[in-house]
Amino acid sequence: MTRTTLAAGALLLAMCGTAAAADNPALKKCMDGANTTADMVSCNVKETKGQDARLNKAYKTALAAQEGTRKQQLQDLQRLWIKYRDANCAFAGSATGGTIDQVNGTGCVLDMTQTRAQELEDLVGP
Length: 126
Known about the structure:
The protein has 126 residues and is mainly α. Helix content is 84%, strand content 0%. It has 6 helices and no strands.
């Protein structure tokens, strides 16, 4: 039963880790050409760098748009979000003890970073 639960959890994490590929043609193309776990991890890491740059730009824009206590609240919130993302993805990246964990962990970081960038962009609008 435990083995079945772990396998189901790993499958779910694997699906979540690649959810960004459906919305990202460059990531999809990279993943389609990936033949090894290391290749898949490399695809996730490469795309995460781009999403991290997007997140940093959105954060700076959102922070500049805040005044008074909201500026400090956003700073505190972003620090907490980074801790949460890192802990959440470390957990996702250690579910099975197998090599797929690396893909799941890096996919989690990618997905969460992409989502957070969008949230910050939405704070200030187009």
